[in-house]
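Sample intake sheet
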Amino acid sequence: MRVALYVTCLVDQCWPEVGLAAAALLRHTGCDVVFDDSQTCCGQPACNTGYQAQGRPLAQRVIELAERTRCDALVMPSGSCAAQVHHYPDLFLTDDAWRKRAEAVAAKTFELGQFLSQRNLTTVPGRFQGTVTWHDACHGLRELGIRDEPRRLLGLVPDLRYVEMAQADACCGFGGTFAVKFPEISVAIADQKVDAIRRSGADAVVAADVSCLMHLRGRLQRLQVPVRTLHLAEVLAAGAF
C-alpha cells in the first residue's frame, strides 16, 4: 500500500520526532511511505475561527498534493487535522468538481492510530518501560470516533503498563484559537486534566494530537507535575528510529 504521510504544521515546526516515528510505524506495517515536503497547513485554524474563504485555498492545496502522490491513503499523526480533511467537502458546496475531489481525498484520510489499527498489527517496533495514561483528544474521539484503537495499540508495547485516568475523554482546554481568546478558561480546563493525570499515577500522558500535548506540557511544567507528554507514535516506535 502506498501511503502519503502528512505531518501537520505543529509536528513539522515543534515536534518533528513525531513525524519520524510515524514514518517508522507505517514502514513497520509494510507500507510504501511517500512524503511531499511542499505540504502546507490543512486550513483548520482559519476554518475553525470562521474564515472558510481563507481556509479553502489551503484545502485545495492538500487535495492537490494527495492527488499528486497517487496514494492509497493519506495518514496524519493528528486527529484534528484528519477531521478537518473530512470537512473539506463542506467547503465546496457550490463547486461540484472540487467537492467530488474533496470527497475522494476525505474517504482515504486517516489519523495515524486509526490507520495502524486497521492494519491489524500484532507487534510494534517500540519498547517503553513505565506507566502511561491516555488523553482522548476531542477531534479524534468526537469527530472520528477513535477511542479503543490507541488503547489496543499501547497494549502491544513491551514493558508498558497502562492505567486509565478519570475523565480521559474530557477536553484539555486548548481548542486552537480558543486558548488565545479565552486563556483563563483554557487554563482552568487544562488544570482539571492535569489533576486527573496526576491522580492516575502515570509516568507519561499519551495522546494523538501535538496541540493537546503542548498545552498539557505547559501546564504540567508550570504546576511542577513530573509527568512526560508523549505522542502515540513516539511510544509505539520508542527506540526504533
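Comment: The mean pLDDT is 96. The chain has two domains: 2-117, 125-236.
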